[in-house]
Structure formats: structure tokens, C-alpha cells
Automatic annotation (TrEMBL):
One of its GO terms (cellular component) is membrane. The chain crosses the membrane at residues 96-116, 136-155, 176-194, 200-220, 227-245, 265-284, 291-311, 326-348, 355-375, 381-400. It is a multi-pass membrane protein. Keywords: Membrane, Transmembrane, Transmembrane helix, Transport. This is Uncharacterized protein. It is found in: Membrane. InterPro entries: EmrE-like, SLC35_F1/F2/F6, SLC35F_Transporter. Belongs to the SLC35F solute transporter family. Its main location: membrane. GO terms for molecular function: transmembrane transporter activity. SUPFAM superfamilies: Multidrug resistance efflux transporter EmrE. It holds the Pfam family SLC35F.
Length: 447
């Protein structure tokens, strides 16, 4: 990495090697999907370039110990098609506004707002529960992880088969455990922070998650941010600052706190865990099928969250209210959070962890809109300005002129060879572009 000292390079390589992020190929680790059925979100095509897996006696593929056999000529044909597609896409005469004319940009904006609305809904349901003295942060999230397991685990078993699934557990289960642990603890400490500090302070500290994402992406994933991207992030943060300032002026987002120092430390820890887990999940979904990532996140998340709820939420059950309304709020909370977790991988593929976190800054705006209807809040005049600033910051972030945006991941190697050809990935876009231009057929013939 240019500009790094030898010590920093050695440290980075050691961390990557420990997590299995360095020097891995899709063929060796089972990350790359060579057939159209490997990712439930893959666009089906009839081209042979994406149908590389078949049975051929005598040549066993080391793919989690399964007996899948791979044709090297078909794999080479797919690689050639991807290379041709990427070359065709990146050689286009693009302008500064070219990416804004793509469906990817508008999907990222739309999906980001859906995620923000999901967060707003979960916060609203949590407020309803807190209003009737039902404070069970770990237990109420347990249902989300259970639902992720119920929906995505059967799909994973059907796609992989029990033997391959067991091999994945033995070989990479510890990585999924780390991802789940970071996610569960990020949720827990962020919610816990609101018990001790005021909301204004906690939300200001949550900006730290964006700093963590940018820093980790730069050093571990070799992402290089342009000045316009940094400017876009700063403008988004400025818009969020206006939201917090207006809340402080109106007195709706500050107030006393029982232990500011403890609450702020919990918020800082939660934001750090969120940032790390978002980067880790982006790495996972760019290499693995979405259903696999979500199924393991559900399995390990349910186990970790269940133990945590049994330890820390037991006393909260005594004073909690249990009736039909509470059950309805828990169902609403679970469904909104499940939708959030199911959509998040798509925006992480099409964009990045940084785009993901920046998009969520608009959640505060939607929270106030809901608050005016449900809790009787009064909208301050700064709110519309802040929302426009956040959206403008997102637009400026994409002023790079690249038609692929952030979907082309630098850690996936040349021509994205280590990535999965799933929906939203640069690899699938390249394959589709190659087929559209007739380049895939020529690549197959050359191979």
C-alpha cells in the first residue's frame, strides 16, 4: 500500500491473515459463486459463462470438502467475460453526472431511505414499549435473529446441502460468530447508552461509526476515497449536526441524564462495534451468497443474544407489562428489523459501508416526522434544510464519474475474481455488459 511504513504494512497483513482476508481466492475458500444458483439474488441468464460447475470424475474442487467439480475452461471463460465487461463499462465516455443516470444510484438512495424508515419504526416501537415500562433491549431483538434463522437457514441448506453447510460451519463458522457478536453488542450498547445519557449526546457520538467505517475500509480493505467523497460525507454530517442543533434549541433531544460519562462511553463503544460490523458484513456479502451470510448471522446472533437476554434482562421482566399491545409492538419491531437486515446486504454490495452509514443519517429526520403525528412533536425550520443537506452530501459523494460507483471492491482482486456474481455486484454488471455486447460469447470461444 503506497505511503505505508513497513511496520504498518506488516500489522495490516497480520490482521488480514488472521481473519482470512489476505491471499484468499474464491476457488480455495468457496467464496466465489460459479453457478447462477449460488446466490438467491443472482440474475438468471442463459449464457454458459456463469454456468461453470459440473461433475467431472477425477478433478475434485476443494470447496468446503464437497464433491463439486469445476471446469477450469469454464472458469476461465467466466473470468474473460468479466474482464471484457469491466473493460467495456470503464471505457465508456462518462461525465460527472453519469452515475446519477444509472438505476444503481437511485436504488441506493431509495433503499437507504427504506432502511432509515425501518430504523425509525424500530425506535418508535421501542418508545412504545418503554412507555409501558417494558425495557428488554436484548430480549426484544432476539426475535429478529430467530426470524432470520427461520427464513434464511432453510434456503441455505437447500442451496448448499447439509454436508457443505457443515463444512462451512467447521471452516468459517468462527468468522460468522465474530460478525454476529459485533452486531449484537453494537445493538446492545447503543440501546444501553440511552439509559444513562441524553439522546443528543448519544447521537453525536454515533458519528464515530462513520469514522470507524472510513478508517477500517482504508487500511484493511484498501478503499481509496476521493476528496469529493470525503466532502460528501462531511456535508451529510453537517446536515445531521443541524438536526441535532434544532433538537437542542427546541429542547426535544437533550435534557438531564443519570450518568453522562457512562452513557457516552457506552455510545462510543456501540458506535465502534457498529462501524466494524458494517465493514465486516460488506466484505462478507461481496464474497458470499446473501442467504448464507444472513442465515449464520441469525443463528449465531440468536445464541449470543439469547444468553445476553437471560443474564441482563431477567430483572426487567418483573416490572414489564405484557398484553396484546405489547405483543403487537414486538411483532412490528421484529418485522421492521428483519426487513432492515434483509435489505442491508444489497446496499452494501451496490454501495459500501460508508454509503450505508451515511444514508442512515436521515433516520433522525423521519423520526421527527413520525413524532409530529404520534408524539405531538413540533418540526423546527432547520429540519428540511438538514434533510436536503444530507441528500446533497450523498449526491456529492458519487460525483466521481465512475459508472460502477462503489460496487467495484478493491479487495476482490483483478476483475473482481474473488467476488460473488450476485445482484448489485460489479461482477454481475460486467457479465451482463459482456453478454449485451456479445463479448461473453467471444470470451467463451477464446477460452
Amino acid at each position: 500500500m503506497p505511503g505505508e511504513t513497513g511496520l504498518l504494512q506488516t500489522l495490516r497483513d497480520h490482521i488480514l491473515a488472521t481473519l482470512g482476508l489476505l491471499g484468499q481466492t474464491a476457488h480455495a475458500q468457496g467464496y466465489q459463486s460459479l453457478d447462477a444458483n449460488a446466490d438467491i439474488m443472482v440474475v438468471e441468464t442463459s449464457s454458459p459463462a456463469n454456468e461453470a460447475a459440473f461433475t467431472k470424475p477425477g478433478t475434485e474442487d476443494d470447496n468446503y470438502g464437497t464433491t463439486t467439480f469445476v471446469s477450469s475452461s469454464s472458469s476461465d471463460a467466466e473470468a474473460a467475460a468479466v474482464a471484457a465487461g469491466l473493460s467495456e463499462l470503464e471505457s465508456r465516455n462518462v461525465h460527472w453526472y453519469s452515475y446519477f443516470l444509472t438505476i444503481d444510484f437511485w436504488l441506493i438512495i431509495a433503499l437507504g431511505q427504506i432502511l432509515s424508515l425501518c430504523i425509525t419504526a424500530t425506535n418508535t416501537f421501542t418508545s412504545f414499549l418503554a412507555g409501558v415500562h417494558t425495557n428488554i433491549p436484548a430480549f426484544q431483538t432476539l426475535f429478529n435473529y430467530a426470524l432470520l434463522t427461520l427464513i434464511w437457514l432453510p434456503i441455505t441448506l437447500r442451496q448448499h446441502g447439509p454436508r457443505k453447510w457443515a463444512s462451512i460451519v467447521l471452516r468459517d463458522g468462527w468468522k460468522y460468530f465474530i460478525l454476529s457478536f459485533l452486531d449484537v453488542e453494537g445493538n446492545y450498547f447503543t440501546v444501553l447508552a440511552y439509559k444513562y445519557t441524553n439522546i443528543l449526546s448519544a447521537q453525536l457520538i454515533n458519528f464515530w461509526s462513520i469514522v470507524c467505517v472510513v478508517t477500517l475500509s482504508f487500511f484493511l480493505l484498501r478503499v481509496r476515497y476521493r476528496w469529493l467523497q470525503i466532502a460528501g460525507i462531511l456535508i451529510c454530517c453537517g446536515g445531521m449536526g443541524l438536526l441535532l442543533a434544532s433538537d437542542h434549541i427546541t429542547g426535544s433531544n437533550g435534557g438531564p441524564a443519570s450518568d453522562m460519562l457512562k452513557g457516552d462511553l457506552f455510545a462510543l463503544l456501540g458506535a465502534s462495534l457498529y462501524g466494524i460490523s458494517n465493514v465486516f458484513e460488506e466484505w462478507f456479502v461481496s464474497k458470499r451468497p446473501v442467504y448464507e451470510v444472513l442465515s449464520f448471522l441469525g443463528i449465531f446472533g440468536a445464541c449470543i443474544n439469547g444468553v445476553q437476554a437471560a443474564i441482563f434482562d431477567r430483572s426487567s421482566f418483573d416490572g414489564a407489562t405484557w398484553n396484546g399491545k405489547v405483543a403487537g409492538w414486538l411483532v412490528g419491531y421484529t418485522l421492521c428489523l428483519f426487513l432492515f437486515y434483509s435489505i442491508a446486504p444489497l446496499i452494501l454490495r451496490m454501495g459500501s459501508a460508508a454509503v450505508f452509514d451515511v444514508n442512515l443519517l436521515t433516520a433522525n429526520f423521519w423520526s421527527v416526522i413520525i413524532g409530529t403525528r404520534v408524539f405531538g412533536y413540533v418540526v423546527h425550520w432547520m429540519y428540511p434544510i438538514a434533510f436536503v443537506l444530507i441528500i446533497c452530501g450523498l449526491v456529492i459523494y458519487f460525483l466521481a464519474g465512475s459508472i460502477l460507483g462503489d460496487s467495484k471492491k478493491p479487495w476482490l482482486g483483478d476483475n473482481q475474481k474473488d467476488g460473488v456474481a450476485g445482484i448489485g455486484t460489479a461482477k454481475l454488471k460486467a457479465l451482463n455488459a459482456a453478454r449485451k455486447k456479445g463479448l461473453a460469447g467471444r470470451a467463451d470461444g477464446q477460452a
